[in-house]
Amino acid sequence: MNLNSEKYIQSKEEFHSAASKTEANVRSRNMNPVCSGLQAQILSCYRDNGDQTLRCSDLAKQYMQCINAAKKPNRSDCDVF
C-alpha cells in the first residue's frame, strides 16, 4: 500500500468519525413546538371568519410576536397564550 492510499484511508476514517459525532449532536436536539396555543386560536379564527379575515388581525399580530420572540436566544416560553 502506498502513502497516498494510507492517507486516503486515514482521512476517510476521520471524516466518518467526525460526521457520526456531528450527526449525533444534531439529532439529539429536541424541538418543542412554540406558540401552539396562538396557532390553534388563529386557525380557528380563520375558519370561523373565512370571508372577513381582518377580524383575526390582532391574533395574527400576537402570533407573529410570539414566533419572533421564540427565535431569540434565551427566550421566555411564549406558549402561554
In short:
The chain is mainly alpha-helical and 81 residues long. It is 65% helix and 0% strand. The protein is built from three helices and no strands.
Let me know the largest β-sheet: none
Helix content: 55-70%
Please state the average pLDDT score: 85
Question: What is the beta-strand fraction?
Answer: under 5%
Number of strands: 0
Total helical elements: 3
Description:
With 81 residues, the chain is an all-alpha fold. It has a domain at 35-74. The protein has helices spanning 3-27, 36-48, 57-71. The longest helix is centred in the first third of the chain and has 25 residues, at 3-27. It starts with a helix and ends in a 10-residue tail after the last helix. Mean pLDDT is 85; it is low at 77-81. It holds the Pfam family CHCH. Residues 35-68 form the CHCH domain. This is CHCH domain-containing protein. Keywords: Disulfide bond.
Topology:
Blueprint: H1 3-27, H2 36-48, H3 57-71
Which labels suit this protein?
single chain; about 80 residues; mainly alpha; disordered C terminus; MIC25; disulfide bond
